[in-house]
Amino acid sequence: RKKRKKEDPDTPREEKRLARIRKSCPQNVLDRVERVLTQRFYLVDRERDGDELRETFKVLGSTGNIYTVTIDKVPACNCPDALKGNHCKHILFVFLKVLNVSQYSSYYYQKALLSTELAEVFNSAPAAPTVVAAERIRQAYATASTSASASAPAAAAKRLPQEGDDCPICYEAMPVNSDAGLVFCRSCGNGLHKGCFTQWAKTPNGRTCVTCRAAWPHEGAAAALGNGQGEGGEEEGAPAVNVDGYINVAGVAGISPVRDTSS
Question: Is DNA-binding among this UniProt entry's keywords (predicted)?
Fold first, then answer.
């Protein structure tokens, strides 16, 4: 009888996937991908967990609820569809639109990912708009600090979208070298869809630029937010936690809180 070979304690153990691997994309996931490609979603916020292979995203759902999507070894969302065990459209929106994972990749439909796969997803993803803005701010500071002019800083020039530039809210394409249908930040010069800014302005973060987080000019934010007052002096349709426990902005976002079950 052969003796069992002793394992070398210095040999790293092979990582185990926390769910069975999917060799092809299930039809129910393909159906949800179709919704992601045909419906508009809005990214409200995102937060990277330090150097960990983990990032959290706040996504505005179709009924006005703001859901939390977490991309780590087991991608998750707190929406009703995901809580039933499904790979929901909010997870798919983050993978396909925000992190720009290819539809030819097998990663976006897996129930669990390995550390190497997660690292590939994050390393290949486009930089978050706030990171890009920070680089531009440093360049602008370097230019300003060497300038002989001591005058107050003027509003930043509009940065017209280039090929491949997506709106930082819906992650859909913007018109190339055009300002049609866009609004621009006076601090960093970056643009986004006017309709998307209207939605963004109604969220808790909405009085700041999506890209550089500078305060948005009050008149622009106020115009997007509206000045209607409800009873007791509270803003009509103000964001609130609904009976399901989600932050809901349907009233201020101008969308129906009733779920569409037709697709």
Answer: no
Note whether 174 and 191 are within 8 A (CB): yes
Can you say whether residue 242 is alpha, beta or left, with left for phi > 0 and alpha for psi between -120 and 50 degrees? beta
Tokens of 200: 């963004």
CA–CA distance from 263 to each of 31, 78, 86 (Å)? 9, 20, 15
Terminal-residue alpha carbon distance, the chain? 61
Q: How many other C-beta atoms lie within 10 A of the C-beta of residue 127?
A: 10
Token pair in block for residue 212:
């550089």
Give me 191's structure tokens.
Answer: 């643009």
Q: Are strands 191-193 and 240-241 parallel, antiparallel or unpaired?
A: unpaired
Interatomic CA distance for residues 242 and 261, integer angstroms: 19
Question: Over the stretch 127-179, which tens digit does the pLDDT of each residue have?
Answer: 877 555 445 545 554 554 455 344 444 556 788 888 888 888 888 889 888 88
Please indicate, yes or no, whether the overall pTM of this predicted structure exceeds 0.85: no
Which residue ranges form the domains of the chain, and what is each CATH number?
27-124 (no CATH), 129-140+154-226 (3.30.40)
